[in-house]
Amino acid sequence: MKRTLLLIFTAFSLLSNATGQTYSVQHDTVSQSSSGTSTMYLHNYITTTQAAVPISWKITGHNLPADWINNPDMGLCDNNLCYGSAYFSNGMWNIDTVKSTKAIDMKLQVKPDGGHTGTYYVSVNVRDMPSTINSTITYIINKWPTGVTTVTRSEDNVTIYPNPAREALNVVFDESLGVKNIAVYNLIGKIVSIYKVSSNSAKLDLTDIPTGIYFVRLMNAQGQIVATRRFTH
User: Fold this and answer.
1) Which structural domain, as residue segments, surrounds residue 121?
2) For residue 195, what is the domain's CATH number?
3) What are 136's strand-pairing partners?
4) What is the pLDDT at residue 109?
5) Residue 149, domain member (yes or no)
6) Average of pLDDT values for 49-78?
7) Looking at residues 31-43, what average pLDDT do you find?
8) Other CB atoms closer than 10 Å to residue 196's CB: what's the count?
């Protein structure tokens, strides 16, 4: 009986180790904003506590302008190489190895020139080998018009509640504002989350945001800020 229980316990332990977390991704979403044309670098780190874990990844979607993709500064990089335009169109898999002594810097670099403005994204699927763990990383680039970051609007056009907010913040605004995205910023001006908008209201999930004082910025299709509100979480 003891031998049987020991065999069962050993098998369960092996199964748990085989299906456990083999790596971690620093951020599910990485975002950065710019009104200039200098190359932007969006870093995200993949780590592990194991000696070495083979990692495969591929780009699964994006809405980047064609001239950004074809720019020689464009690329999604791991510790081996920076992969350019071909990898943004054909979904090719790439392989790297994350080690306990060396993380993978899964870095998106993009030069936001060509006069484009708005919110752009790149989605990347990451998995270990042989595909027991899957993750999705989303990179968000907010490109504002040069020298124009805010549009003046009446303060009565936007309402937020409750404030202070706990698990969610409701944002209601006039359709004339043309809001397409709502971003949440912390006190040092860093984006902590961004939400796409398809109507004249939105419910922002705050469960993964630390407590503190934040700002919501409502942006139109051109990336211009049409309203800003402060709230406490």
Assistant:
1) 23-143
2) 2.60.40.1930
3) 125
4) 95
5) no
6) 91
7) 86
8) 10
- The structure tokens listed for 191 are 């984006």
Q: Are residues 97 and 130 in the same domain?
A: yes
CA distances for 203 relative to 101, 128, 159, 163, 199, angstroms: 41, 34, 12, 13, 11
Q: Is the pTM of this model over 0.85?
A: no
Average pLDDT, the chain: 81
| Residue found by looking up tokens 């860093």 in the block | 190
62 pLDDT higher than 70: yes
Residue that is written with structure tokens 């998995």 in the block:
127
CA distance 86 to 40: 20
pLDDT-derived band of residue 13, with 50, 70 and 90 as boundaries? Answer: very low
Q: How far apart are CA 55 and CA 145, in angstroms?
A: 38
148 domain residue, yes or no: no
Q: Are residues 135 and 40 in the same domain?
A: yes
**Would you say 145 and 117 are in contact if contact means Cβ atoms under 8 Å apart?**
yes
DSSP of the chain, one letter per residue? -HHHHHHHHHHHHHHHHHHS---EES-SEEEEEESS-SPEEE--EEE-SSSEEEEEEEEEEE---HHHHTSTT-EEE-SS-EE-GGGGTS---EEEEEETTB-EE-EEEE---TT--EEEEEEEEEEETTSS-EEEEEEEEEEPPTT--B----GGGEEEESSS-SSEEEEEE-GGG-EEEEEEE-TTS-EEEEEE-SSSEEEEE-TTSPSSEEEEEEEETTS-EEEEEEEE-
Which residue, 143, 176, 209, sits at the end of a domain? 143
